[in-house]
Every structure is written in structure tokens, then in C-alpha cells.
Design a protein that fits this description.
- There is one protein chain.
- With 162 residues, this protein is of the alpha+beta class.
- It is built from six helices and ten strands.
- It has a five-stranded mixed beta sheet.
- The longest helix is centred in the first third of the chain and has 9 residues.
């Protein structure tokens, strides 16, 4: 999905991919100029080890709000957490031990957006996801956790050397 953000010195197009792997592919294919990668991403080393890429900027910022989300028309109750699997990217799973007081069956996917999409499609009923994915997939939070203080790297292609 491409999102256009108006800026004082020209518009910026943001391409939202479902996985970081797709972000790297788009960067290497020159479809985008930069890729933003959260340090919680378990495969960030693939960006660092790629000889055609380099870290350009490292910064700290909070993620969007995370929580448990369901379809807008889904009747949720707490007991469902004992019976229904929860779909999630692996990174936010540790939030459960701080916000859910029971064992939960988990199914993992490649991104929080993918988790939200699988709930929207009816494949699963409950996802750990963030507020952007909730809006994008027309879900609703049944429990919110928090924003996550995160460090991030913006990667670019290495400049060609003469």
C-alpha cells in the first residue's frame, strides 16, 4: 500500500509492505530509497550483512499502541483466550505475560499487519497487532497493551563507488 504524505518541500511516498523481507527486496530493486526496520525484528541482521545496504540513521521512538484485536462484529469474551488461538508476529508475544493472566495458544506469522489481515479474513478470531493494522483492517481492540519504546534503523543502498 502506498501512502502519500504532503511535505513542505514536496510529497513523500511511503510504501507499506507486509514483511521486512519485502521491504529489503523493494530497497534492493530501487523501488524505494529507504527502509525503516525496528530493532525487534529478528532478521535485522540480513539488512546489516547485505553488502549493498548500509544503516543511514538510527533513532528511538515509540511504536503504535499494541493490543488484542478482533473483527468489528465479533463477540469477544475473556474465555475465548483459553479456547481460540491468537495470531501474532513473534516480537510482541512477550506482551502477553504482562497483560493476559492465562495460557494462550499462539500461531505466528511474518508481521502484525499479516496477523490483523488473517483476523479480518476470518482465518483467526484474535490477533496481537497494533493500532495502524487495526484501522487498516477494520478491526477493534478488545484489550490494549501499550506503545513500545523501540529503536529503529533506516537503511539505504550503498552509494556506487567509481
Amino acid at each position: 500500500m502506498i501512502q502519500r504524505i504532503p511535505q513542505v518541500h514536496g510529497d513523500i511516498d511511503i510504501l507499506l509492505e507486509d514483511t521486512y523481507e519485502k521491504c529489503m527486496d523493494a530497497l534492493l530493486a530501487k523501488e524505494v530509497d529507504l527502509a525503516l526496520v525496528a530493532h525487534a525484528y529478528h532478521g535485522i541482521n540480513a539488512f546489516h550483512m547485505n553488502p549493498d545496504l548500509e544503516p543511514s540513521v538510527v533513532f528511538r521512538g515509540h511504536t503504535p499502541e499494541y493490543g488484542l484485536a478482533v473483527r468489528s462484529d465479533f463477540a469477544f469474551d475473556e474465555e475465548l483466550l483459553s479456547r481460540e488461538p491468537v495470531v501474532s508476529h513473534p516480537a510482541p508475544i512477550p506482551l502477553l505475560r504482562h497483560h493476559v493472566d492465562r495460557p494462550v495458544t499462539l500461531v505466528t506469522v511474518d508481521s502484525t499487519s499479516q496477523a490483523a489481515g488473517q483476523v479480518a479474513d476470518g482465518r483467526y478470531s484474535i490477533a496481537i497487532t497494533n493500532e495502524q493494522a487495526v484501522r487498516r483492517h477494520n478491526l477493534r481492540f478488545v484489550r490494549t497493551f501499550s506503545r513500545i519504546p523501540m529503536t529503529w534503523t533506516i537503511f539505504s543502498r550503498k552509494a556506487a563507488r567509481p
